[in-house]
Each structure stands twice: as structure tokens, then as C-alpha cells.
Design goal:
Distance between the termini: 15 Å
Helix content: 25-40%
Strand order of the largest sheet: 4-1-7-5-6
Largest sheet: 5 strands, mixed
Number of helices: 4
CATH superfamily: 2-C-methyl-D-erythritol 2,4-cyclodiphosphate synthase
Shape: globular
Structural class: alpha+beta
CATH class: Alpha Beta
Number of domains: 1
Order of helices and strands: EEEEHHHEHEE
Strand content: 25-35%
């Protein structure tokens, strides 16, 4: 019997101006006059996805595991996501919904490329990846352009032999 469940992941990073550090979002490079504060590449979208997967598997990657990887020179957030995915034993991703709050950059020109890249990283079809972006009418620091905030809702299912259906 399949058991369906949902997890949430979130992350945020502050805007910083570091020369020669690209702005990476969803594994896609954005042309920008700023980057995000982080020891890694600061890909806040992949970090939020990694956190959602950690919620599904209980294997927390961001924090101690990612810090150790970073000390070894691994700063590509795709590698953190791959590490989290390694714990997805018998868990299938049904759908992922990604909500981004930021004033900049403009996301619409690259949303399809982000969806394609995320689908590839998660080994799912593009129709299972939804991305929305908002400025939140400038009511928060993210909407004012001081950072980027991402929330991810991950719907999964797991085949379980001993699952007892509760009525």
C-alpha cells in the first residue's frame, strides 16, 4: 500500500555584492549585479528543496553535512541536493511546488529553465514541478530587495508493506 505525505522546506539568503560570485537559483545562473550571502553558491531554491527532502527522509543535509562538504571545497548546491536524494529510499516525489519571494531578479524569463533543471535533478517529469514568484507587494525585506526567500511544498508517496490504514 502507498502512503502519501507532504513536507515543507524553506530557506532564505541575504543579498550581498561579491564580485565573481554568480547568482544561482534552481541550478540556473541569473545575470545579476548581486549574489547571495552563503558559504556555498547560495542557491536558495535548491537549499529549500534539500530541506523539504530532509523532511521526507529525516536526513538533515543542510547544516553539519553541508558544512563538512563545504570544508572539502564542495560549494555547488546541486551536490547538497544529491546528498539529500541519496536517502530517498522507496520514496517517490509526486509533485513539488516552489514559491519565491524577492524583488529581483526577474524570474519569469528563466522559470521554464529552472523547472527543467529541477525536474532533472529530482528525476521527475517537468509537469511535476511548479514555480511561482512574487514581490509580496514589498511588505517584507525580501520584497524590498534585501534577500530571497523560498518555500517548497513536496508531495511524496512511499510503498509500505506494513502500513496500517487509519480510519
Amino acid at each position: 500500500m502507498k502512503r502519501y505525505f507532504t513536507t515543507i522546506g524553506q530557506d532564505s539568503h541575504k543579498v550581498e555584492n561579491v564580485k565573481n560570485k554568480p547568482l544561482m537559483l534552481g541550478g540556473v545562473e541569473f545575470e545579476s549585479d548581486f549574489s547571495l550571502a552563503a558559504n556555498s553558491d547560495g542557491d536558495v531554491v535548491l537549499h529549500a528543496i534539500t530541506n523539504a527532502i530532509s523532511g521526507a527522509t529525516t536526513y538533515n543535509v543542510l547544516g553539519k553535512v553541508a558544512d563538512e562538504m563545504c570544508k572539502k571545497g564542495v560549494t555547488d548546491s546541486k551536490e547538497y541536493l544529491k546528498e539529500a536524494m541519496s536517502a530517498m529510499k522507496n520514496i517517490e516525489i509526486e509533485h513539488i511546488s516552489i514559491s519565491i519571494e524577492a524583488l529581483k531578479p526577474k524570474f519569469s524569463p528563466k522559470i521554464e529553465l529552472m523547472r527543467e533543471n529541477i525536474a532533472s535533478l529530482l528525476n521527475i517529469s517537468m509537469d511535476r514541478v511548479g514555480i511561482t514568484a512574487t514581490t509580496g507587494e514589498g511588505l517584507t525585506e525580501f520584497g524590498k530587495g534585501n534577500g530571497i526567500f523560498v518555500t517548497v511544498l513536496l508531495s511524496c508517496c512511499k510503498e509500505e508493506e506494513n502500513y496500517i490504514k487509519r480510519i
